[in-house]
Specification:
This protein has twelve helices and nine strands. The chain is an alpha/beta fold. It has a nine-stranded mixed beta sheet with strand order 1-2-3-4-5-6-7-8-9. The chain binds pyridoxal-5'-phosphate and iron/sulfur cluster (SF4). The site of iron/sulfur cluster (SF4) has 10 residues, from loops.
């Protein structure tokens, strides 16, 4: 988040009166105070001198407090730390690792919307996230960080009105839950009046990295909508599914919202049968279902995270032996130009 966006949030903080100061202002404050200095994080984890962060202006360091609390003190290989800490390897240019690996910009009929698969459209509702994951394809995207005005969404809604084959809208980003409940509420209402829409899907990492984002207000506006809500969260390691995060996922499930997880297969983070079994087990234990295990998108600066497809298939075979059938995710890759994710 840039300075303007941060001060806008702080400004909003100040205008919230004590009577209305609920958990909405809590998550906004935690987001505004998220750690932006890798040295501070390393000092907290007792890792100064043991790990040297890489300075990059390209895709800034960003991680909220709740996620930091789940990292192990003194462990330079902590799987949560590895997902967020910039390292020297990001600077290595590897052939085949590109700026727009999934070529989403080619299927965008109007700014803010990607229509790649027949029945569902994806809306880029926000350019920002609560965490910057080093392996993310978003790192080179030409997103503007500032939230768009509600009026600027009208052309997108009009486009959906014109496409009766679309029955599901996916709110994605960036992260749609960086928008506040009021803005989200208005969007959901605008979508609910489009008669051929039946479901609204929210792709968000906030229930994982900033669990207090799952507010009563959010549950209420989703619960009241005509559209069936579905959550797709993003956790990569079992250590993420503890305490406040496990509680937030349970809250969604208890509100009657299906919760699915997509993970990315990441070298040094979750590239073992044990790590995947642990992740999937913790998910199903809170009622969230493993959905996809994604092969890494080949984005520039993320080559050091890549796991071979051969190794990925081995891990999947291990999962099928050790997990209940419903707890096994589908191993997929997003191939540019293909209809849907391709199963590996
Ligand atoms: C992944 C993706 C979707 C959703 O695909 P599912 O297989 O239904 O999860 C939709 N639109 C775009 C552009 C996507 O990349
Ligand atoms: S939360 Fe998702 S979109 Fe945001 S940086 Fe992480 S992987 Fe990328």
């Amino acid at each position: 988040m840039n300075k303007t966006a941060r001060s806008a949030i702080l400004q909003e903080q100040r205008t919230i009166s004590p009577e209305t100061a609920d958990s909405e202002s809590n998550w906004q404050l935690e987001l505004a105070n998220a750690c932006r200095d890798p040295d501070k994080l390393l000092a907290r984890l007792g890792l100064i001198g043991k790990v040297s962060p890489f300075r990059t202006a390209d895709f800034p360091f960003l991680v909220p407090e709740s996620f930091i609390r789940r990292m192990k003190i003194g462990d330079p290989n902590d799987p949560l730390l590895k997902q967020v800490l910039p390292v020297e390897d990001e600077n290595v240019d590897v052939p085949g690792f590109l700026s727009d690996p999934v070529a989403d910009l080619n299927s965008s009929p109007v700014s803010g919307m990607v229509h790649k698969y027949v029945n569902r459209v994806l809306l880029i509702t926000s350019g920002s996230c609560a965490v910057n994951c080093r392996y993310c394809f978003r790192r080179h995207f030409p997103y503007s960080e500032a939230p768009r005005s509600l009026e600027s969404w009208e052309p997108v809604f009009e486009e959906i009105w014109k496409r009766p084959e679309v029955d599901e809208v996916i709110l994605s980003g960036g992260d749609p839950l960086t928008l506040n409940d009021r803005r989200l509420g208005v969007m959901i209402e605008k979508l609910a009046v489009i008669p051929h829409l039946q479901r609204i899907r929210i792709h968000s990492r906030l229930p994982i990295v900033l669990p207090i984002r799952v507010t009563e207000g959010l549950l209420k506006s989703l619960g009241q909508s005509r559209l069936q809500p579905i959550f797709v969260v993003h956790a990569n390691h079992g250590n993420e599914i503890v305490e406040d995060c496990a509680e937030a996922l349970r809250k969604l499930v208890q509100a009657g919202i299906p919760v699915l997880n997509q993970a990315v297969l990441l070298r040094g983070v979750n590239d073992s049968v044990e790590a995947q079994v642990d992740l999937c087990t913790r998910l199903v234990n809170v009622g969230a279902m493993p959905y996809y295990l994604n092969q890494l998108d080949r984005v520039r600066g993320a080559a050091h995270f890549e796991v071979s497809v051969e190794r990925g298939r081995e891990i999947m075979a291990g999962l099928r032996k050790k997990l209940s059938g419903y707890a096994v995710p589908r191993y997929v890759v997003d191939v540019p130009g293909c209809e849907g994710k391709t199963e590996l």
